[in-house]
Amino acid sequence: MAHRTTRELRIRRHRRVRLSLAGTAERPRVAVSRSNKNISAQVIDDESGRTLCAASSVEKGIGVSGANIEGATAIGKALASRLKEAGISTIVFDRGGFAYHGRVAALAEALRDEGLEF
Q1: List of residues 6+ apart from 27 with CB closer than 8 A
Q2: pTM higher than 0.85
């Protein structure tokens, strides 16, 4: 068997999880994307194929590094405030095949701390 790269393994995990995970208009999916320097999350209604809102560490005005837990927490709080403005209080969390620890867990905890349910 050929060796698979870390990226290929992550994509396989993500595809496997996505078979049972979908966002609706009432309960959209929060998809997390992480790189070594940045982190971003977008809220997706999979029924209509639309992105409802998003937050990323590369945005102007955010002013945080996405490479640490503090930055991930700030992105989670920014996304939570945008979700509240859109009138959304319950979500489905999609970690994107990334391990649920460190920055991904910090983003999720920030969303929970701001009152979102998932």
Answers
A1: 90, 91, 92
A2: yes
Give domain limits for the chain: 6-113
**Token pair in block for residue 4:** 């698979």
Query: Cα 87–69–118 angle (5° rounding)?
Result: 35
Which listed CATH number (3.40.50.300, 3.40.50.720, 3.30.420.100, 3.40.630.30) goes with 6-113? Answer: 3.30.420.100
DSSP E strand boundaries for 23-118:
29-34, 39-45, 50-56, 92-94
3-state secondary structure of 117: strand
What backbone torsions phi and psi does residue 32 show, to the nearest 5 degrees?
A: -100, 135
Question: pLDDT digit string (tens) for 58-104?
Answer: 998 888 898 999 999 999 999 999 999 999 999 999 999 999 999 99
